[in-house]
UniProtKB/TrEMBL annotation:
It is a multi-pass membrane protein. This is Sugar ABC transporter permease. Belongs to the binding-protein-dependent transport system permease family. Keywords: Cell membrane, Membrane, Transmembrane, Transmembrane helix, Transport. The keyword Ribonucleoprotein does not apply. The chain crosses the membrane at residues 12-39, 72-93, 105-128, 155-183, 213-235, 261-282. PANTHER family: ABC TRANSPORTER PERMEASE PROTEIN, INNER MEMBRANE ABC TRANSPORTER PERMEASE PROTEIN YCJO. GO terms for biological process: transmembrane transport. Residues 68-282 form the ABC transmembrane type-1 domain.
Length: 293
């Protein structure tokens, strides 16, 4: 066994298949998308080179600009609501003396459920006639309180954001909780001896010490919200009246329904570049430093 581990070909046997799959399903599609973005093509006839016309079209495409705004809406909600909620719940679970393992498992369960299942589940909950949410609202305030959650342009995006948060928040809670529990107990005990209350301990000790993990959460949130697709596609398909359209759903419609593969590829390239820019800015603004306890 030791002789096999000292052989460099052993490591190559594990690395090469993974590298091939990575290049085949990530690098190659990105390169092809960049190339197709300079062509007008319906997937059947000959490709026609049109230069940067597809990218110029993005600037004047009202639907694309609206979908871009919806992606930023996703991002703002996740950064301003989800992450603070994650930190708060992680703090509460870390303070629990009993059933901590149960709480960790309970918040993580939605993560392992497929997005399609979550979307269908919330679609049932949001149903105007029989959905549990409207049934409860009718009991409280009558028929006027019932809402068309997924058919109202003013409520559809918020409804999707809540479903998306319910599914993904557990992963970040477990991640943040692991960082909090990794803080040496001696630090908290010393703070209590010095008379530090729970509020100051949370904001002046715990928060700075878990900052690198929060930064990782920030990066994952930004990249995830810019490429969100499945939950929007299943719950509303970008409707009603494109109020929930995001870049991914719009690229899918343009590329495979309108058969404008060149323009659809240009949208995908714009998404890729935007994610690179946003993550690059975050890495410069919020440099992750190793925490010394």
């Amino acid at each position: 066994m030791n002789k096999a581990l000292r052989n460099p070909y052993t490591y190559l046997a594990f690395i090469v298949p993974t590298l091939v799959l990575y290049c085949l399903f990530f690098i190659y599609p990105v390169i092809v998308s960049f190339i197709y973005g300079f062509y007008q093509w319906d997937g059947i006839s000959e490709k026609v080179f049109i230069g940067i016309d597809n990218f110029k079209r993005l600037i004047h495409d009202d639907v694309f600009l609206k979908s871009l705004g919806n992606n930023f809406y996703f991002m703002a909600f996740s950064l301003l609501v989800n992450i603070p909620l994650v930190f708060l719940i992680a703090i509460m679970v870390s303070k629990a003396r009993r059933l901590r393992g149960f709480y960790k498992s309970a918040v993580f369960v939605p993560v392992v459920i497929s997005t399609a299942t979550v979307a269908i589940l919330f679609g049932v909950l949001y149903n105007y006639e029989s959905g549990m949410i409207n049934q409860v609202l009718r009991m409280i305030g009558g028929e006027s309180w019932a809402k068309e959650w997924l058919s109202d342009p003013h409520l559809a995006m918020l409804s999707i954001l809540i479903a998306n948060a319910w599914q993904n928040i557990g992963f970040f809670i477990v991640l943040c909780l692991a960082a909090i529990l990794n803080i040496p107990k001696e630090i908290g005990e010393a703070a209590k001896i010095d008379g530090v209350n729970a509020w100051n301990e949370t904001w002046k000790i715990t928060l700075p010490l878990v900052r690198p993990v929060l930064f990782v959460m920030l990066l994952l949130t930004v990249s995830g919200t810019l490429k969100v697709l499945d939950i929007v596609q299943i719950m509303t398909n970008g409707g009603p009246f494109q109020s929930t359209e995001v870049m991914s759903t719009y690229a899918l419609k343009i590329g495979f329904r309108s058969l404008e593969l060149g323009y659809g590829s240009a949208i995908g390239v714009a998404m890729f570049i935007l994610i690179l820019i946003m993550t690059g800015i975050l890495q410069r603004v919020s440099k992750s430093e190793e925490v010394q306890y």
